[in-house]
C-alpha cells in the first residue's frame, strides 16, 4: 500500500471511529449502542500492530463514551429507553440484562484501545475506569461479572505494556486472590492477568514472588 492510500485509509478509520463513538453515546436504543460498541471493538482489534494511528481527539472521544456508559450517563441509559417509552427502542427485556451488556461492551474496549493508542498516553485516563470495574466486581459478586472484570483488567495490562508499572502492586494481589476462586473462568482469567503483569512489570512485583 502506497503512502497516499495509507493516509486515505487512516482518515477513513478515524472518521468511522469518531462517528461510532458519537453514536454509542447519543443513540437512544440500548441494543444499537451495544452493537456499535461491539463494532468499535472489532475495529480496534484489527488495528493492533498496524501503522494506522488513532488521532488524539478520536481516542479522547472514545474514552468519554466508555466513561459515560460505565457510569450510566449515555443517552440509551435514560429510564424510558429501557421500556420503549418515547425512544422507540426495540428492547423490552430485563433491564438488568441490558445494563450488564452495556457495561461489558464498554469495558471491553479499554484493553484494545490501550493497545492501539499506547499505555503511556492513556493510562491516567483509564485508571478511574479500572477502579470502577473493580468496585463493580466487589458489589456484584456473580461469576460472570467477576470473570469479566478479571479478564478485562488482564487485557488492559497487556494493552498498556510497561506503562502499567505504577499500578502493578495494586493489581497483583487482586489477580492472586482470583487464583483461588472456585470458578474456573475466574481463576483462568486471573492466571492470564498474572502472566501479562509479569511480562509488563516484573520488577515491580518481583518482591511478591
UniProtKB/TrEMBL annotation:
Q: What is the lineage of its organism?
A: Eukaryota, Metazoa, Porifera, Demospongiae, Heteroscleromorpha
Q: What is this protein called?
A: Uncharacterized protein
**What InterPro entries does its record include?**
ARM-like, ARM-type_fold
User: Origin organism of this chain?
Assistant: Amphimedon queenslandica (Sponge)
Amino acid at each position: 500500500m502506497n503512502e497516499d492510500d495509507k493516509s486515505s485509509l487512516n482518515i477513513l478509520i478515524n472518521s468511522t471511529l469518531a462517528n461510532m463513538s458519537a453514536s454509542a453515546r447519543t443513540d437512544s436504543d440500548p441494543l444499537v449502542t451495544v452493537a456499535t460498541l461491539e463494532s468499535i471493538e472489532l475495529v480496534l482489534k484489527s488495528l493492533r500492530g498496524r501503522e494506522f494511528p488513532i488521532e488524539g481527539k478520536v481516542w479522547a472521544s472514545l474514552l468519554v463514551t466508555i466513561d459515560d456508559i460505565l457510569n450510566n450517563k449515555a443517552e440509551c441509559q435514560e429510564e424510558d429507553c429501557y421500556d420503549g417509552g418515547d425512544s422507540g427502542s426495540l428492547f423490552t427485556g430485563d433491564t438488568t440484562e441490558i445494563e450488564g451488556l452495556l457495561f461489558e461492551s464498554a469495558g471491553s474496549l479499554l484493553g484494545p484501545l490501550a493497545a492501539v493508542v499506547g499505555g503511556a498516553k492513556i493510562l491516567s485516563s483509564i485508571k478511574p475506569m479500572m477502579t470502577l470495574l473493580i468496585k463493580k466486581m466487589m458489589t456484584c459478586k456473580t461469576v460472570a461479572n467477576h470473570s469479566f472484570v478479571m479478564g478485562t483488567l488482564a487485557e488492559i495490562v497487556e494493552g498498556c505494556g510497561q506503562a502499567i508499572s505504577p499500578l502493578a502492586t495494586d493489581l497483583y494481589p487482586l489477580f492472586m486472590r482470583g487464583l483461588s476462586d472456585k470458578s474456573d473462568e475466574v481463576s483462568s482469567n486471573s492466571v492470564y492477568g498474572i502472566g501479562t503483569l509479569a511480562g509488563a512489570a516484573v520488577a515491580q512485583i518481583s518482591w511478591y514472588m
